[in-house]
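One chain given next:
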Amino acid sequence: MNTHKMFYRWVLIGFISTLAWLPEVVGQVEIRTPSKAKKTTPTPTATATPPATTGKSSAQNTLPPPTVASCSAEADTSKYGFEKADDLFWVAQKEGDSQAITAVSQSTRGQAKVGCYALALLVELLSGHPNKSKGEAYVDFAQSAPPQTNVPADLENAQIKVWVFVPKEAAGPAKTPNGLQVFVEDEGYKREYGSWFKLQGENGEDYTGRWVPITLMPSKKAPLRGFMAQDFEPKKIAKVGVKIAAADGSKAEFRGFIYVDGVDW
């Protein structure tokens, strides 16, 4: 019995000793318990703000015709009024030395002299350039002739009037201003050009920024400050068109739109 008592005494002493140093050990051990992941709000990433859109293209920031608030297509009774987008048979000259007009399209609604729409001509006029110091746009009667018009048409002594809107940037230098002309071509490819219409007059008149009429009366006699090919036939007209050009000796450059409307005779 004494032996058993001694054994239990030693076990009890060992247990008490263990309890004495256990708190110190526990304090040295990092006890981790699973915890819920914290919800974090992502930090916003700085994003470059795109520049404000100006609506500009490679063309100059030119002033278009004033937009009419209300208009009526039926009010346009001219031969070519450009009221229908699917009836724009006018084209830009793509050959030779007169390629400054690069595209044609219908204008924005309300930008018209008569009715609701006009013909917008995209121009890249570069004086001294072999192909772009002048440009032309025209309609071929074989593609689109006005109602009750014979093809070729007899336009001898008929006054052709074309309304044109040119922004101020297209005027050119005051001493050598850019100019406009109406022209016709007969069925034999011979042409007659109307009088050269300067966008700035001799006395400082400014014909830009508003609708102005330019005219031609086809005949057997060359117009003053115009041109007529030999054997031109005004009774057999196949095309009518408009020309813009830089004056001889000018250093003018213009990229933008001009507008044509109310072509009539």
